[in-house]
Amino acid sequence: MEGPRPGAMEDERRYTMTEAPPPPPETTPTAPAAAPQGNGVATAGMVLGIIALATSWMFCAPYVPLVCGIVGLILGVVGSGKAKQLGGAGAGKAKVGIILSIIGVVIIVVILILVATVFAEVTKSLTDEIRKAQEMYNNQTP
């Protein structure tokens, strides 16, 4: 019968569960990859353009589409300039923001003009009817 071979105890000791494994080899830390720079100004312009278009039918609160449309237009133009600096990042969003903002502002302005025109016509008609009624009343009185 042979005795334990030399180094057998060392092999068993290396695989026991009670000891911690050796630390991994040291590596040099690497910097995380830089995330592509976004164009938040263009995104904000697009969002405000969407809000301006979606709320442009609300002639009872015209300040919402007007303010969102004007600010969205400004941010879209600024975002377009920033997109040129960033190599085109956000250029599409900036264009969409500009277009939707313009459409939203034009719609609310047209609606306000129509409402003002109708209001003026109704006021003129009512004034004429009141004048006729006053004349009839004055003619009936002796």
Structural class: mainly alpha
Helix content: 55-70%
Largest sheet: none
The averaged pLDDT comes out at 83
Q: Which stretches are low in confidence, meaning pLDDT under 50 for 5 or more residues running?
A: none
> Which term fits the overall shape?
rod-shaped
Strand content: under 5%
Q: What pattern of helices and strands is seen along the backbone? A: HHHH
Count all strands and give the number. 0
Measured between the Cα atoms of the first and last residue, the distance is: 150 Å
If you compute it from the alpha carbons, what radius of gyration comes out, rounded to the nearest whole angstrom? 38 Å
Question: In DSSP terms, counting alpha (H) and pi (I) runs of 4 or more, how many helices?
Answer: 4
Task: Show the helix and strand layout.
Blueprint: H1 8-14, H2 40-54, H3 63-85, H4 91-140
Helix pairs in contact: 2-3, 2-4, 3-4
Q: Describe it for me?
A:
- With 142 residues, the protein is mainly α.
- The protein has a domain at 39-109.
- It is built from 4 helices and no strands.
- Helix 3 packs antiparallel against helix 4.
- The longest helix has 50 residues, at 91-140.
Short note summarizing the structure:
The chain has 142 residues and is mainly α. It has a domain at 39-109.
